[in-house]
Amino acid sequence: MTYKIGQIVPSSNVTMEREVPAIFGARMGALPERFSFHSSRVRMHRVVPEELQRMNSDMGRCALELADAQVDIMSTACLVATMCMGQGYHRQAQRELQEALASMPWRPAIMTSAGALVDQLKAFGAKRISLLAPYSDALTRVVVDYIEAEGIQVKDFRNFSILDNLEVGNRDPLALLEDVKALDTAGVDTVVLSACVQMPSLAAIERAQEALGIPVTSTAICTARQMLAHLNLPLEAPGAGAYLGSRIGL
Looking at the whole model, is its pTM more than 0.90? Predict the structure, then answer.
């Protein structure tokens, strides 16, 4: 069986269409299930509140397009657009997407990348984390407060104040191996190497986990993990850190 993975992607986001297929592609090399990947895009270029809010208003159209393709699982692929709408908003966003599909004969499982991060941190048992993010100071504080409102303490964070979303996507993921050295990770359960779905991190996840000796994940990995959970498949994929079964460094 081939499972169809659907994502609602900001128009300037390229990373989730690389990292999610890469995670599932590695999994297909080790396990029998097959996957295909499908996207609908919504306009957003600069990571500022006005564009994020405008993007949210157009997601219903994207949901309808993906339902036309009869995807098995559908996820938004922008964390901060959800979190900037208010604490707990990922639940409302999910309901709104479900309502957009109320008249459709095909209704896939629906999730958000913001919800995936907090849900999978909880599912893994993480109570105290440190994280890296590309956002402005103000938006990073929104993300930190959102996560803490979900009952997960953020011990430390670093952000890079990059407003251009394409610039975020062009960042070298291996630069995170130096960036993470500035984080206070003592006593944390997990390091979120990239709290942003657009900031590439997959290539650095296992190297960071090996160096730190604690589980390392990202919003992209948590999104893939929640997709697998919705599909009732084992939460495993080679090369994607502890949250998808790797014990390297632990």
Answer: yes
